[in-house]
Amino acid sequence: MAVSSERRDFELVERAYDRSGQVCAEYAKTFYLGTLLMTSERRRAIWAIYVWCRRTDELVDGPNASHITPTALDRWEARLEDLFQGRPFDMLDAALSDTVTKFPVDIQPFKDMIEGMRMDLKKSRYKNFDELYLYCYYVAGTVGLMSVPVMGIAPESQASTESARRGRIYLPQDELAQAGLSDDDIFAGKLTDKWRNFMKNQIRRARMFFNEAEKGVTELSAASRWPVWASLLLYRQILDEIEANDYDNFTKRAYVSKATKLAFLPIAYARSFVRIEV
Fold first, then answer.
1. pLDDT digit string (tens) for 260-272?
2. Is 172 helix (H, G, I), strand (E, B) or coil?
3. Considering the entire predicted model, what is its pTM?
4. How do residues 223-233 score in pLDDT, each as one tens digit?
5. Is 1-157 in CATH node 3.40.50.1820?
6. Residues of the chain with CATH 1.10.600.10
7. What EC number(s) does this enzyme carry (predicted)?
8. What is the Cα Rg of the chain in Å?
């Protein structure tokens, strides 16, 4: 009996979601753990979004980054538009193409992320935190807006060292100068008291943003709060690990152990029932 085209399409999409989950598990272990706490449909949708974001980032940070041009990013954006119109280019695109039919996902945050990749091609330094904040929106904040429709809320309501190896410094230039640090200090990777003091200020600000994020978690649908709380607590724990490493981002990678991740799950579960008054 011949296999219908509908059946073939279904099997392709199922394989695409499975592969997306494998990629997420391999490259984003903490994030993947959070997705396992979601409902099956939401989990698969988040995997599909993650894989698209990873592939987009790889355009400028992957092994072929030196060959990427603005024209290549234009082609990637055209491919994104096709994907949203139900014309996926390959198997992994098929997972996201299916996701956007099941959830009211907006294309604009995806386009904005591509704009962030264009910024990577044009500049490698950011004068101050305001400039860096805009860049962070394009390459990271957009992920939240992509995920919002999946998580059930309306949109209204060591990385530094790895980047330095590519000649990019995602740190505010004015704050580096105030700390008495230069680009050469970053590239040299030498741990000094100046660097420690600089990192203390960066961590202080990061914790402030994590605290602000807590308020938003309570606005999510009940089914989504646990995994998001788990992710928030575990990613915030990375700041503690940086401190435990004596602020050495150059030779030590800050990560959260598997035992710690498991220990935080019941804490996140309990938090998911608490509503924070804003």
1. 888 888 888 888 8
2. strand
3. 0.70
4. 788 888 888 88
5. no
6. 1-157
7. 2.5.1.32
8. 20
